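for the recovery benchmark. tokens below, seq after
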């Protein structure tokens, strides 16, 4: 299927699901939980472009998510920017920072790159905590005024519809990356970067594209977060759960295919939303860790890898 056709189908499906559920479901908790799950679809898909397709493990997911969120806060304080402009700005800021971070750190490999991304997240956290304009450690309020647009009954439904479209767009981008020559180059880097460079693959250029796209999508996921919660403070935005889930969901779903992070996010994110009513956030993280141990032991290539392996075994010889 062509990329344009897949993108159109994904966006139309997202619109259909958002419109149908908004018309049939009246419980706002459903939209709140669905928004969170779709947000993790975007984050997991974004992480996988760099971590799964390229083979560079990024522990700074929360930092890029926070860049999108605080970009929206700054624009809201400046001139109460519309949510569309906030999403575009958050995506652009995170993409540019991803490009800069990649240029500074992508000469590192393996655990050294992972530690550098973790350090970047800590530096950005310290900066935000001490930035009074966005509330510093006190946090900041972003409250949507008036009635929800486009006939939605509540802003939660409206934000759910926006996140559904962003999730569809992120998945379409990930599929395009995987099936294009860019994806072939990234796979060569993941398998053996030295051999890829010796073969003429422009490794640094492709890695910079990967960090830029990955960072931009993470920032896009965070851009609507202040509108969703109405109050944002640094510890919540830089939460460990964003970094852990962004890694765990592709690992569980499968890192080498665009569908893997989607499957992992829907399964793990949905399970967390069901359990969070009865258990604490700490137990939710414990559940993520336990599932990671199980999948690394039983299905190290995730659900998609396990499915493909089972399919090959089932074929007649």
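predicted aa per position
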């Amino acid at each position: 299927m062509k990329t344009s056709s897949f993108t159109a189908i994904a966006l139309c499906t997202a619109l259909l699901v958002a419109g149908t559920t908004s018309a049939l479901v009246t419980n706002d908790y459903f939209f709140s939980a669905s928004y969170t799950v779709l947000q993790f679809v975007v984050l997991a898909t974004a992480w996988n472009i760099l971590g799964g397709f390229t083979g560079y493990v990024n522990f700074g997911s929360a930092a890029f998510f926070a860049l999108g969120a605080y970009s929206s806060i700054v624009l809201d304080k400046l001139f109460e920017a519309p949510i569309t402009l906030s999403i575009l700005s958050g995506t652009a800021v995170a993409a540019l920072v991803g490009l800069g971070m990649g240029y500074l750190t992508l000469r590192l490999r393996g655990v050294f790159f992972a530690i550098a991304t973790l350090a970047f997240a800590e530096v950005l956290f310290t900066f935000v905590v001490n930035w009074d304009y966005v509330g510093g450690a006190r946090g900041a309020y972003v409250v949507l005024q008036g009635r929800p647009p486009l006939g939605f009954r509540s802003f939660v439904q409206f934000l759910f519809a926006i996140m559904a479209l962003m999730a569809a767009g992120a998945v379409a981008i990930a599929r395009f990356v995987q099936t294009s020559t860019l994806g072939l180059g990234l796979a060569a880097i993941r398998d053996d970067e030295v051999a890829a460079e010796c073969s003429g693959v422009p490794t640094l250029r492709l890695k910079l594209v990967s960090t830029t796209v990955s960072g931009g999508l993470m920032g896009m996921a965070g851009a609507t977060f202040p509108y969703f919660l109405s109050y944002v403070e640094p510890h919540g935005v830089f939460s460990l759960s964003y970094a852990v889930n962004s890694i765990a969901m592709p690992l569980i779903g499968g890192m080498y295919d665009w569908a893997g992070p989607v499957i992992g996010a829907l399964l793990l994110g949905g399970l967390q939303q069901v359990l969070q009513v009865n258990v604490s956030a700490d137990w939710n993280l414990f559940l993520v860790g336990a599932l990671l141990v199980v999948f690394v032991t039983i299905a190290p290539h995730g659900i998609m890898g396990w499915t493909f392996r089972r399919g090959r075994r089932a074929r007649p010889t």
